[in-house]
Design goal:
six-stranded mixed sheet; alpha/beta; Aminopeptidase; 180 residues; 8 strands; 39% helix; globular; two-stranded antiparallel sheet
Length: 180
């Protein structure tokens, strides 16, 4: 039986790794809020997921998950992208060496986010596509998914996100529940 591990990328703790900051938006706070909403929606379906301690930085979360996960568990790390203000859309990152399951679930997640928020689907990308080229998150021994929900630097993306956040969490919970 698969278990779902949800991580809010970065931290909402001052002086920790808070992720991208753009005006009034702090990535760590946005990620934690969405993680809680998805967990709430999964719980309504009778699915308890395992959450990281959001005061942790990424390396601590990865250490925790390495102790707890095993195949065929699913670990999902939630992030918000940042770039120039015209960049828009959602994308999902998977390991360079990935499984058919990771590709399938990532495509579904990307589609759900883009249609729920009415933003561009930037597709599924391998970790080598990212600026860092290798992601510590992808070393967790299970099915790994890293979500870039939308661009916190794009006001339209953020408006669509806030207007549809509950719907997004419900749709993601519906989709993820099919894999449990």
């Amino acid at each position: 039986m698969r278990r779902i591990f949800l991580s809010a990328g970065h931290s909402d703790v001052p002086d920790q790794d808070r992720g991208a900051i753009s005006g009034k938006y702090i990535e760590g706070e946005l990620a934690e809020d969405l993680r809680k909403q998805i967990a709430f929606e999964l719980k309504k379906k009778g699915i308890n997921c395992i959450l990281d301690d959001h005061s942790n930085v990424t390396k601590d979360t990865v250490r925790l998950f390495r102790r707890l996960v095993k195949q065929p568990d699913i670990a999902i790390d939630i992030h918000f992208n940042a770039a120039e203000f015209v960049a828009t859309g959602t994308e999902v990152i998977i390991p360079d060496i990935n499984t058919e399951f990771e590709r399938t679930i990532a495509k579904g997640i990307c589609y759900i986010i883009s249609t729920s928020l009415g933003i561009k689907n930037r597709g599924v990308k391998p970790e080598s596509y990212t600026p860092r080229k290798k992601l510590f998150w992808m070393t967790v021994p299970c099915e790994n998914i890293l979500i870039e929900v939308c661009f916190l630097t794009n006001e339209n993306d953020m408006q669509n996100y806030f207007e549809n956040k509950i719907r997004l969490a419900e749709n993601l919970a519906d989709y993820l529940s099919k894999f449990i």
